[in-house]
Amino acid sequence: MSRVTLSRYLIEQTRDHNTPADLRFLVEVVARACKAISHAVSKGALGGVLGNAGTDNVQGEAQKKLDVISNEILLEANEWGGHLAAMASEEMEEAYQIPGHYPKGAYLLLFDPLDGSSNIDVNVSVGTIFSVLRCPEGTTTPNEQSFLQPGTEQVAAGYAIYGPQTMLVLTMGNGVKGFTLDREMGSFVLTHDNMQVPEQTKEFAINMSNQRHWEIPVARYVSELLAGTTGSLGKDYNMRWIASMVADVHRILTRGGIFMYPRDAREPEKAGKLRLMYEANPMSFIIEQAGGAATNGRQRILDIQPESLHQRVAVFLGSKEEVDRITGYHHNA
Ligand code: AHG
Ligand code: MN
Ligand code: MN
User: Fold this and answer.
1) pLDDT tens digit string along 10-29?
2) In terms of CATH architecture, what is 203-332?
3) Would you call 50 helix, strand, or coil by DSSP?
4) What is the tens place of the pLDDT at every residue in 41-50?
5) What residues pair up with 168 in beta bridges, in sequence order?
6) 146 lines ligand 1 (CB under 6 A)
7) Residue 178: partners with Cβ closer than 8 Å, 6 or more residues away
8) If you take atom 8 of ligand 1, which residue's CA is the nearest one?
9) Of 10, 137, 188, 196, which is least packed with CB atoms within 10 Å of its CB?
10) What topology does CATH give the domain 6-192?
11) Residue 304 pLDDT more than 80?
12) Does ligand 1 have an atom closer than 6 angstroms to the CB of 245?
């Protein structure tokens, strides 16, 4: 069979699902920006792009040079095309307005330009996460409020993972597709036509160093996972924690698992570490489209009504049987 590139896939999506041309264009532009980020990331020390930028972002986190570079690449790639009404990023406090000399479009683009930044200096996989919303009707100057839509309103979501291969994983509401970057041709080629999360798993992902800070349902569940065949779950589990959400989610999308970043007592005022709008929502949309589940321990992440652009949320996502189990423990707590 001849290779299906991202462009061909998007054209066929338009025919089969009436995907609007400017949404198709949006995905192509984001994919092109991810190719540029992949190129920058792969240079590493040779490109002088490792290490800290010497600035902090709105999250109060030290920015890596590649956080800033990746953010710039996405802004510059998207601002002129006429497909966006505004953008929002983990790296920017306010929504980014499209410069007046460019036309505006129907969509809002949100992104974590470089996810897993703590891994960049040690050459471990990192990624880019993006989410697409419609700009509310009649809104000519989108503000933070325009973005505060529940995850169920997403029209597309995806991530690029910069690992041994650079891949783009995408959902537009009709399942999850994986594209592998052919560097010689410079095109993303469809290699994973229908990504599905196995309903059962023997693998969990959590940062165990936070164990003493967890709430009771999480402590109970993880102790059962660790008890393996000697405990109530009756099977032994393996553990992985890459500390790049994109890499952990990609593994789960590929072979199953449960990913957990619970809220914890270190900063009880925070609902968790991960950000709802440009980490949890896009990843939850992808996971659900692949037959998995995603909750904050108590409710479906996609149903959460956002209250602020950078709000954080607890995340339990992946193989449905395990997500349902830990969500049940929270309800019975
Ligand atoms: P980012 O680099 O965009 O800030 O995201 C990092 C996130 C996420 O990718 C990962 O799952 C989590 O932080 C890892 O947190 P710990 O370092 O606390 O394990
Ligand atoms: Mn991130
Ligand atoms: Mn980031």
Assistant:
1) 999 999 999 999 999 999 99
2) 3-Layer(aba) Sandwich (3.40)
3) coil
4) 999 999 999 9
5) 160, 179
6) no
7) 167, 168, 169, 170, 190, 191, 192, 195
8) 245
9) 137
10) Fructose-1,6-Bisphosphatase; Chain A, domain 1 (3.30.540)
11) yes
12) yes
